[in-house]
Amino acid sequence: MEKTFDIEAELKKLPASPGVYLMHDASGEVIYVGKAVVLKNRVRQYFQSSRGKSAKIRQMVSHIDRFEYIVTDSETEALVLECNLIKEYRPRYNTMLVDDKGYPFIRVTVEEKYPRVFMTREMKRDKSRYFGPFTSAYAVRETLELLHALYPIRTCRKVLPRDAGKERPCLNYDMGRCPAPCTGNVPEAEYRKRVDGILRFLEGDYKDVLRDLKEKMKEASERQEYEEAIRYRDLLRSVTQTAEKQKVSDLESREDRDFIAVAKEGRDAVVSVFFVRDGNLVGRDHYHMTASEDDPESEIIENFVKQFYSGTPLIPKEVVLESEISDREAVETYLSARRGHKTAVIVPKRGQKEHFILLAKENAKTVLERDKDRIKKEEAKTSGAVKELAELLGLSQIRRIEAYDVSNTSGFESVGSMVVFEDGRPKKNDYRKFRIRTVSGPDDYASMREVLSRRFRQREEENGAFQTYPDLILMDGGKGQVHAALDVLTEASISIPVAGMVKDDRHRTRGIWYDGREVPTDEHSEYFRLVTRIQDEAHRFAITFHRGLHTKNSIRSVLSEIPSVGPKRETELIRKFENIDALKKATAEEIAETKGFHRKAAEAVYRYLHPEQDGKDA
Questions:
Q1: Architecture of the domain whose range is 7-94
Q2: Over 80: is that where the pLDDT of 562 sits?
Q3: Burial of 399 per CB tally in 10 Å (0-12, 13-18, 19+)
Q4: How, if at all, do strands 257-265 and 268-277 pair?
Q5: By mean pLDDT, which of 252-256, 312-316, 364-368 is the weakest?
Q6: Rounded to whole angstroms, how far apart are CA atoms 300 and 290?
Q7: What are the domain boundaries of the chain?
Q8: What is the Cα–Cα distance from 396 to 412, expressed in whole angstroms?
Q9: Residue 161: is the preceding peptide bond cis (ω within 30°)?
Q10: Does pLDDT of 612 surpass 60?
Q11: Among 402-411, 500-509, 554-563, which stretch is predicted with the lowest mean pLDDT?
């Protein structure tokens, strides 16, 4: 194919504006995303003399086939776009945050008449009170368990007082863990006292709790109710331990701060973050980064800050770093905009802040040393296994693998699945599902031809998963499936290696069919385990999709018999209620909340599903 992108000519067209640039290789894959204050100057630098450039940059430039750019109004806007594009494409030459953690918070639904307290990983812009982030789900569950023991309140999702009195109280009421506001007999003011106690506790005010527990323990002991006294004693110890954990403080002020430091050895890097909230050290966490041998620690920290704070909902007043970053002003502006108030990025030279940075640095070193063996084992299972597979098949390089499977029940509801692995890890954002349209009956070969034809035809029609061709296609079958795939690729004039996963009598991977023969394989090798994982994932994804469609058709067949439900209402009910059992459990009021429904139509659905209640209130 004739090359149409003239790099020298396109460099002359670059504007002197801020923006983001994307580097593509010959297959069209995005291999690097960067931000520039002046696009014209920054992009040109890559194609000038290689003197002074790191080995990583020289290697990256050697693979650039073309580039594109997006002009923005400001450097801050470019930074935001850069973060989003890095998350979307995960380019191989960007320093990447490996861990994609969701931070647990404690949510208190103070906006409800009878509030609840529970763990969440999503901080919404609503009227609830949020506490955190906590560094582990275990810490949150431990705190919630203590809170529910101190202040028994409801844990159910009932809408109160609307649902009050409809059902008998649950087991939590019988066990003394909930006052059962669902009965309608609990005064709101009395319930609110418990919620206020929870809020004080989460804000760090333990004095009232400790005093009350001591008094109750003493009173129970005087009444010779020793089991109850022991329960209060254990609660007292738990609260005391929680209070003790808060004694490590940033003595300079009562502000929210994050302290960030990095430890690096070769290609392995660990970033450690200390979370200080209201002047107290509430936790710490660490994050693994992919890096190159010549990436300086300051560049790793800069990339971490951009990626980490584009995903976490809680941004502190100060971000304290071990070393300076080049985009400091742009990052400050971006963080301040996300927080809604000024956020400062600082590098301390002395005092308490430097002490915390040194602690974070030591923590990062400890974690890196501890996890080195685990990281190497993980690398052997992923990118190492991919290299082994490439050597086995005689391919120069494999990075992206696509695997396909089909699923049906005697030819009914045939579906296809496409799963994607990059560097030996699943890339779930690129997974795709296919409903078979042109094949009747259980014809797996014809179904697979349809799936592959649609996948490669849609490359020009859809962004994301279909834009990049794989380095290897794996079929869930042997010779027949491989030939079906090669026929489709030949018709499309596409050259991609195709291998089949040969199965034994128990549907387990036995070997690999490639280049017209079954390749001898080592069942104890990492590449064989990787191929097995990919096959299992393709099969799981297809089966899950098939079952979901079967469930939807089950509910659709019931809904089609109800006179007041047409195609549009049918679709909306399926969207809201996953299956017929969920719909049967819903009240008429809940059904009426569905898009396109009014009270009369909702009651008609409810009465149809509950004929035994005909003539009664819904």
A1: 3-Layer(aba) Sandwich (3.40)
A2: no
A3: buried
A4: antiparallel
A5: 252-256
A6: 9
A7: 7-94, 105-204, 257-371, 387-549, 560-613
A8: 41
A9: yes
A10: no
A11: 554-563
Protein fold of 257-371: Nucleotidyltransferase; domain 5 (3.30.420)
Residue with tokens 């809680």: 314
Task: Find tokens 């980064």 and name the residue.
Answer: 289
Contact 254, 264 (CB under 8 A): no
Distance between start and end Cα atoms, the chain: 68
Radius of gyration of the chain from its Cα atoms, rounded to whole angstroms: 30
- pTM value? 0.50
Q: Which of 273, 276, 245, 241 is nearest to 260 (CA)?
A: 273
Pairing of strands 472-475, 498-503: parallel
Cα 130 from Cα 393, distance rounded (Å): 53
3-state secondary structure of 581: helix
Would the CATH topology of 387-549 be identical to that of 560-613? no
Q: What is the model's pLDDT at position 2?
A: 46
- Chain centroid offset of residue 442 CA: 36
Instruction: Say if residue 567 is exposed, middle or buried (CB neighbours under 10 Å; 0-12, 13-18, 19+).
Output: exposed
- DSSP letter at 458 equals G
DSSP for 460-476 reads GT-SGGGTS--SEEEES
Q: Could you give the dihedral angle defined by the CA atoms of residues 579, 582, 585 and 590, in that order, rounded to the nearest 10 degrees?
A: -110
Among 287, 362, 359, 296, residue whose Cα is nearest residue 96: 287
Pull the structure tokens for residue 534. 């990919």
> Token pair of 574, please?
């399926």
* Predicted local confidence at residue 465, as pLDDT: 52
Calculate mean pLDDT across residues 105-129. Answer: 86
In angstroms, rounded to a whole number, what is the distance separating the alpha carbons of residues 146 and 330?
42
Residue 379 CB partners (closer than 8 Å, separation 6+): none
Question: What is the token pair recorded at 401?
Answer: 């693998």
Instruction: Tell whether omega for the bond before 133 is within 30 degrees of 0, i.e. cis.
Output: yes
Domain 387-549 has CATH 1.10.60.30: no
CA distance 240 to 243: 5
Is the bond into 442 cis (omega within 30 degrees of 0)?
A: no
346-365 average pLDDT score: 87
Query: Under 8 Å CB-to-CB from 271, ≥6 apart: which residues?
Result: 260, 261, 262, 286, 287, 289, 300, 301, 304, 364
- 262 by DSSP, 3-state: which? strand
Q: State the DSSP string of 107-126.
A: EE-TTSSS--EEEES---SS
Look-up of token digits 């090669």: 486
Quick check: helix, strand or coil at residue 42? Answer: helix
In degrees and rounded to multiples of 5, residue 97 shows phi and psi of -80, 115
For 360-402, how does the pLDDT look when each residue is reduced to its tens digit (9 = 90+)?
898 888 888 877 777 778 778 888 899 999 999 999 889 899 9
Identity at 511, one-letter amino acid code: G
CA distance 153 to 368: 42
Q: Distance between CA 330 and CA 21 in Å, rounded?
A: 17
Percent of the chain residues past pLDDT 90, beyond the cut? 25
Whole-number Å distance between alpha carbons of 406 and 463: 23
Fold of the 560-613 domain? DNA polymerase; domain 1 (1.10.150)
Cα–Cα distances in Å, from 130 out to 56, 81, 105, 111, 255? 42, 28, 6, 12, 17
Cα-Cα-Cα-Cα dihedral sign, residues 456, 457, 460, 463: negative
Strands (E) located in 267-308: 268-277, 280-290
